[in-house]
Fold each of these.
Amino acid sequence: MNRYTRWFPLVIMAAGWMAFSKGLHYPFIFDDSVAIEQNPFVYSSALWWSGTRWVVDLSFRINYLLGGYHPFGFRLVNVITHILAGLFLYGLVRRCLKQPALAERFPPGVADWLGFVSALVWVVHPLQTESVTYVCQRYESMMGLFFLATGYSFIRAIQSRHQRLWFDLSIGLCLVGMGTKEVMVTAPLMILILDHVLVANIRTGLRQRWKVHLALMATWGVVMVPVLGKIVRGVLSESSFSTGTVPYMVSQVPVVWHYLRLSVVPYPLCLDYAWPMADRSAGLLIAGLVLGLAGIASVWAVVRRHPAGLPGMWFMIILAPTSIIPLPDLAFEHRMYLPLAAPVVLVCVSVWMLLERMTGRRRPGMVWILHGVAICLVTVVFLLMTRLRHDDYRSGLAMWENVCAQRLDNLRAQVGLGQALLDAGQNEAARRQLEASLAVDADNTPLAPAQYRTVRAKAINGLGTLEFRMDRYVEAEQRFRQALDLVPEYTLARNNLGLALQQQNRVGEAMEAWRDNLRREPPDDTSRYLLGLYLVRQGDCADGFEYYRQAVALRPDKVRVVLEYARLLATCADPAMRDGKEAARVAGSVRPRSVNDVVGRLDVLAMAAAARGDFAGAVKLAQQALATGREQGLQGLSAIEERLAGYAAGRPYIETVAPAP
């Protein structure tokens, strides 16, 4: 088989690409906007530290700098990250099987094959879609990449002539990995267990490699303080034995069984379970007892240095942080990204050993054939299922429809579906969905009280938006106030309330609503934009421009607002406030996200040039805007043509009325 092993990495890469490339052009959904589009570390050059997950946030920033907010670049990096993780899993498994404890049982050719098929199945597994196709879960997949790379480097160092290089690389990868996601804290412990079971007992291993293990554990300092703080707060809280840590851990029993079922039969998959707290019952007790016995058996096997305990320890240790520390949600499929390797490797190796036993090892060729056929069938089925799962990621509407079909009691999904229908312009369907969600009582949902109020406020805000669209501003105002009664810090509802008041000619009250948002954290750019807009419309350009500056400083990625501010600077009717040079600087900082943005940027740059008296430059820029717009088939270019005629006649463009919001 040695002459074929060179193709193994290529097959893993090809299979990973076939499984996940289908979703490269899909839009952002769900929390992608929070983790990427609303993440100030991504779009603001003024911030250099984003917290404990700075490595992934830095990768998001690089994506943004190279391609703006186009989802393709973000999704491409996710797919590449996953494929690289698969390659490191291949290397880790094959080298583990070649260690002294297993080398006699698995010859080199068999070890290479089992490492390959384990990585192949893991890479195409449908359960991985949430960690790969759901862009914001790069936190999970990148953590998995650094975890596997750390383990691979350590195991490779054991039998390498360049031990120092590989050990140092393992430590460096572990250190960087701590900046991806907090679960990475389990890596040093897992490596110590691998060393103990596969290489030398823990005493010998620590005596020979104590500096390496100490350095790996020293990387805990990057994230250990906040993680320990969460554990202590959860365990010592007064509600630990009623609604805190203990009930959370008990409720993880059915969740873990669900994860294991999905490892074998990955259907149906769900993005948002809103899993309820478990009711204590005999069934739960039995399920927990089985898991507990399996865990004890794994620990005992590891203590006795038996490799059979490694899959169980891998699964338990990596899943432990999200199974012990109380989190807002009990279950998410992305938490199985790395633990999934344990059941996959266990099944692939166990089937091989079973086939050997059935054939009595006298017909090795039959073992290869049967195992190869089984792996091919599983890989093809899983690959097709993964590609089909991508259909649910094609839009927020499709995903929420899928979640609601599976989790009828998921209020968050019902409201999400209503909002998706609203965004799609399906107003009546959105109204029915949002009104139905309001009929759900707090006692009939697994959401915590604070979560329930937040989700209910979003539903009411959505209904207010519908009233606003129908020009029913009084009814819209009532809805927005109801949402704020539930969640006073709901800035979106307060901004919408201001718009509803403004449409009723109650401008003073509207501006007071927006000013109220200025006193809240985190800083809100939309309220500043709205204040700036209406102050300019009232002729107060000095104060209006200051609010615009604040809005642009908070969200320099919002192309429309930035170009609007630059346009006002270049075309302000007040000569004292008109500043063509600053307008050109502001417009020049824009990173266009569409053809409309490109044309709009050229148009504003032309206005800025005319404001400076550079009419030749203004003519050239306006002509570029027109040429680009016509080439792309854009409509509404007559205004640019009129301005072009003015530039040619030596007249700057002066705006007498601020644009509508």
Amino acid sequence: MICSQCQTDNAEWASVCFKCGKLLEDHSDADSPELDVSATIIDDPSHESLSGLKTTIIQSEIRQYLTAGSLFANRYEILDKGKAGGMGVVYKVMDRELSEVVALKVMHPDFLKNNTALGRFKQEVKIARSLQHPNLVRVYDLGESDNIKYFTMEYIEGKTLRQLLDRREKDNKPFSLEETVDIISQLCEVLHYAHGYTIHRDIKPENILMMKNEEVEGYIVKVTDFGLAKMATPSMLSVNTKKMGTPYYMAPEQLKDSSKVDKRADIYSLGVILYELLTLSLPLGRFETLRVKRPDVPPSLDPVVDKALEPVIGNRFSDALELKDALNSAIKISEDQPVEDTPVEEKETVSQVIPEIQKKAEKPVFQEKAFVERAIQHPKPQKKKNYMIPVLVGLFLALVVSIYVISNLKEKEAPPTTASMPSEALPSPPAEEKGPVTAAPPSTGNQVQAKTAIDQEALDRKVEGYIGNAKNLLANKKYDSALIELEKALKIDSRNVSVYKLQAEIETEKKISMMEAQKRAEEARRIQNEITQYSDQGIKYFNQGKFTLCIEKMKEVIKRDSNNVVARGYIARAQNEIDKVNQAWGKASEGETTIIRRVK
């Protein structure tokens, strides 16, 4: 949500601006239906039509004449009812000047609510118009008609990647490796191109349009709202779909402060989409590796996903093409150097193991060959055998073994008589006391896997414990202690989205609490000033003999400070003076009685 004071883009759940501390206005409507954010897909049945939309996305007067068959801006003939999105409403229109079908987007009325936002919007549209790439939805023109801001763009016939994912999930058929590589490669290329000009900051399936490729089997990927997403507030961009919302595709640094991100935030979003295409699930918390979710996928892809989803910005891919190259290299490794399946619990990836195996396999062969050649060319002279060295070595080893055995026996709390004996005379323990010595059975793969699962569950419980502690501390308004608990959780699980969300919530609550404390302090100062003002006036009236007015002013003091001793004292003194006047004058005229009557 953009702050109206400093124009800082804050998180969607923020109630106060992170930069200037101003309370933010919520433009959302609780009764509004869930909306999709697709920009140029027109024939999408999942969208709500404009006629049935109960939301503040567009003014009611616009609805009255932007209907099918009407003419907008004396140029665009409306061809459908329009589909609502996060930043406005999109119509399929006929451009009468160019005689072609285009998409017309009418902007959200709150989207351009001040001159600063309008200037930024025009600048971003100019950038978007300058972008020309086969995988980008082209922006054509920017205009205004009857105080309605709009722009036109390329009309696309197709579906969103979200619609395809929903279909695949229904059929339980994730994207194949070839389909995934093709989609991600196109996204990497268009992001690499566009990052030279701007950042998207809202890469997700809803903003990716899929067109059937007529020449070859597959899809042509089109990214929409490039550059414009930078202008929108998070509350506009993160309108819930029926499955998930924008925060799941946001990088951790974007969840904290979306105004200070670079192109690596888009790369993180690509990593989420890469994982989702192959598994039909999101990489939340300690997510399962591709090796577990998709055994048919090369295990060398796991390091690629891990680096794309790296929560530390510096450890993430620095460029979209770097991600594409790493993806292709991982596939090439799996094709050129197939290896046997390794246990899931092994930490090393196949791409790391293969070079080590080759190095270990080649080095001894080379050394052995060189040794043989040297031995043939320069045979060593025969030396007289010396038996003293082996004897001394054997004695030394025996001494070391004896010391080791003694230390082990001491650790196992051997009987005092045995422990006190010298090592040379140490007898073997009786067979009936110690029993036969058997070697521990080797750990099987299932045992190791079970131990790994137990360890993982323990770590997860630890993280949940830290989160629970943080929530309890938040309820008691101990914000700093709650943030410390979440930092402990992030050290164990640095990718836990729930931790980042709770962290942002706590920081927001902390700032709200500070603002409320500041307001309370200001209110206390205001009340104190009023008390001082009324008190000074009351004392002045008392000294002038205007006891009734003195009592009125002091009662105002009592309203603001019921325990004010000074005010109560002056009220009592003034009342006594009034009583004295009444007693001295006896019966007074009716008007005089009104003036000096006893004040209740």
Amino acid sequence: MLKTEFLINVAGYFVAQDPAPILFVQPTQGVAEDFSKERFAPTVEITPQLRDIVEPPRSRHSANTITHKEFPGGSLDFVGANSPTDLASRPKRIILCDEIDKYPLSAGSEGDPLKLAEERASTYHALGRAKFVRTCSPTIKGLSRIGREYAASDQRKLFVSCPHCLHEQTLAWAHVRWDREEGGGHLPHTAAIACEQCGVVWSEREREAALDRLSSASGFGWRQTAQFVCCGQKQSPTFWDEDGRSLCADCGQRSAFDGHAGFHVSKLYSKRHRLSHIVQEFLDAQGDQELLKKWTNTALAELWEPKYSETFDPNGLLARAEPYDGDDLPEAARVITGFCDVQGDRLEVQLIAWGNDEEAWPFQYNIINQDPTQPQAWKELEVLLRSKFTTVTGRMMRIAAFGIDLQGHHTAQVLAFTRARKGRRIFACRGIAGSKPIWPGRASRAKTGEVIYNIGVDTAKDAIYSRLNISPPEPGQGKPGFIHFPVGDNFGAGYFKQLNSERRVLRRRMGQTYVAWEQVEERNEALDTFVGALAMRKSLPRVLSRDLEYSVTHDTVTEEDDRPLPPQDTPAAAEAIQHSSYVAQNSPDRARARELSPNYAKQASFVGNTSGWFRR
């Protein structure tokens, strides 16, 4: 919603109209440098007023650099919140902080980077001349910096007039409507907003016209909504003056204002985002807590409140166990992933089959009781990775993605094993705490150059514990995110005790609250391997269409099939699929068709070499 554009405009104003020393803070130093080159520099180039006074770094006589700009009467420095030295630089009058929820808890050992940055303006603040601007999409309730800052502000919201009854209201998700087909299917292209007063549904053109009228509205539609105390009463604003300042219902005087203004706006107010697209994004996020959180934070600009119990009933899960295993997986299963937890004296492996909307069927839990320093342990793991499994109709499947934890035990052996199999989607992984994506999409590199994938373990545990409390679907029906469990010795009371082995707790560091997961049982391998298998599922395309089924037949895959595949969802992949379809339909030589394209027909040799698939 143009938060960053707003900051650029604020910076431009103080460069051209009211020169001052400015500090522009991004989450990291690398992001700050990229922002200067990719966002601020182009703005300067196309804005004559800025171009005339801000010399480019390449200018022969310029003292300017990528992160430091000088201009008559002031300067502008781009710094990272992870750099305490830069945050503690010279005094600044204007402090602009972007994406503050992504700042680290502490800049080194110096404390909250937001407070450190704003301390640079303490002298100007004492004189009443400082300006602090903080922007971000909100994140998790109780942990979000921007949520905290907005709660402490006057909480301004944007009021729009209904084109039919002229009632002024905020645009809320609760007022969005769309139709359904007779069979119950959603029709997002019919999405519209209904007036909270008269109930009339606005057309998309009427919504856009209502937004255009804000340019001539008093206070441009912004109104203070924070509660205040006046005439001995705590009040929620119901009256405003022409500037949007809240008025006491008894005496009619303006509410007290300490100068801290806060503004909230969602994509519902954006002419750049059609309602149909917002609704479609909402529908696509169903069954995926991570996507739903992202949609809530970025589309609605609302704080996310995790809805899950920190525990679950193991006996209840045992009681609803179902009779399936690797030889008769449900036909709804589309892909298999797995993860290996490396212990000092053994390997523990869990395999999970996944259907649409990440419905899950854990079906195999193996303990390889071999010393991981010896080749035999890894030979047995290789045999497991080469295994084939079948659905109830006989459709064959193999493991599509597999991860191995390299933290703690036998790192060298893990790296050697994955290095030799990098073309088969077998990944060396390590868990990263904090609000991180479950799967990064891009590899990191160790100091030795080894490729490593960082798994957001806290986010994965949030998702798993939430899904474990989903009520079972009707017999024969599926349910997004639901986790089934099989009848079997390896899925007994001990398994569920390990699955229920951690608790979510709140802790404080450097004055900031953060979430941590605390182990309360001696063993937690079942939870760790489930987390890893979920991350492996996230490494694959979210939508498993029929031509991406990862199922395997005897005549289309061999143990040695290691051919590279183009990245999915790219023109190259689409071209390969189209070419393979053409060959299949127009050539009797099926073997030649398979040679031309690994995506031929129903072949699913996605366990082949996929080097570079995640570097997008």
Amino acid sequence: MGEIILVQLGNRTSFCELLSEHSNGKRIRVKIGRNKEAKLPLNRVLLHTGTNCKSHDEVISFSTRSRALMNEIDLKIAWEYLSGEEKTLSSRHIAEACGLDKSDPHAIAAVLLCIEEDDTYIHSIDGGFFCRTAESIETRVQKMWEDRERKKEISDLITNLDRNELSPNLTKNQESHLNHIREYAIHGDRYSRSGRAIELLSQIKSGSNESIQIYAYNKLTECGLLDLDYPREIAIAEIPRTFDRDILLEANKLTDDCHLEDEILDLTALDTFTIDDQNTIDRDDAFSVVDETIWIHITDISSLIPKNSKIDSEASSRVATLYTPDITVPMLPPSITEKMGSLDPGQDRQCLSIKLDAISGESHFDWSIHHTKIRSDKSLSYLQADRILVDPNDPLHQRLSHVREMMRHHETSRVRKGALELNRPQLSIKVLEDKKIEVKVLQKTSPSRSMVAELMIAYNGLIGTYCKNNRISVPFRIQSDPEESLPLEMPEGPLKWYSIGKLLRPAQVTTTGGIHSGLGIENYVQSSSPLRRYLDLIVQRQVVEHLHSRPIGYTDSEISTIANVSDSQFRTLRRIENDRIKYWFLKYLNSQYLEGTAANNLKAVILENFEDRPSNFELVDFPYRGKCHFPSTTKPGDQCCLKLNGIDLWHKTAQFSFEGTA
């Protein structure tokens, strides 16, 4: 049998039974509930009631009676009666002022509970009680009112969000909390205040954190505060979609005037062409043909952007231009990518150019590198270039055909050295202004695309050779041979592309050089896209400085550091691009096959078949890979028919079922 006491347990008060006191007089042992005990510091005891109990039921009875008495206590009345007292008050004084029996332990306990709940008028200091001043009470009452208003504002916000009825005139408090919800909807648990957002949203939505996040995202889109197609991947990666004002100002002050005219080879008299996609606005490569000689030109961005300038630092942090079906986030400001740095027709531009003359039966080149000035005569699309290549009567047919033939020999030479020919088509998706999704399948075997791709491979390989021969520090890209032999004899198609892709080792960056087995080129660098990739700009800087016999700007150590950081970030950008392509392609499938009139029957090639889990396939009409359960009677390489059952745009997945072999 122990005494009933009132103690502080965490952030609440509770009645319990005192079992014993420690011999040092600093701790006590109490019974909490029917079967649970605890050891507490002595200063956690708020009241010794003087009432002993025989069971826990008597503790509950005492608590119930004391809490019932709280309804009869008005601390404001007690304050008005006692506020003239300057001495320390006891709980008995306060109970008496409230009209209660000061000798009743239930009344004393009720007083303590009331003060614990609301100390606006009377508060506790070191075990004693004091009346607050009128000024202090006024301040606290005002603060309590403001707190209640803020809570009401938040409650209204959450309720209206659930009803899709957000007010256009939100208070600052509501805007702040709505921003927490928005950031959580985008970033999920990565958001630093995700706990607060979940606490708010849990009032109207239960479930896992992810389900709450999805709910918040959908609600914000329904209220018009988020676009359903918002690129969350870009926001999560914290990629800036615009440039700061000081960067734009610095870019606008740049000039493409050449201060080294006597050191630059003037090729403006040569007929020069660019070949790009129809909507390209940042042209960084061109070529010229003079008799049997081919010139490959890459826009010289290194001479345009000073090293360590604000623009250079910004490009370094962005690493590369990000291309998605609906958004382009450039590495450099538009005044550079679309104007001063773009090889547009009729504009004089500095370039880093390579002169090629075929020797040894056109499988090898006599070549040299030059800092040049060119002027593009015409911008061609791939479609236009393909038409020229098949039209003998076109004025440009002979020159383009010569380039194509030389690049065929160059490709054949690489293949002999072990280069892989992976002609898997590429999915091209554009989101038009009316949100219409335009899907195209680009064949790598297109004559002009193959030609331009080989021109860039030749250019990058020769720049790498130049750097290796002259001991210029650059980030070479190498790729080791696969551990297993590649299925090169397999028929061209999805299964071959998939099988080879699984065996290829990832390319690595090094400053020492080596073989790139997949390309069949030794000492390969990337230098053909300085408008779009920062490492290409770095390589270009090194080469241009060497051509003019100036000190090289970067050491091996600096190149290695820049390359490793950039390569990691570049992989992140490519992952985002692939994720956004998948999102828009799945949205296209949804509109065409689930919501549209297209027959919901898609042909696919089975890439693998596991009994215990979904297996990979690739659609025949689109270079898209997904997963599906296949019967044990099917095998890799079989063509089949699949039914599209559903699309999950949040997770970017599609649900297919096997309909039969094709």
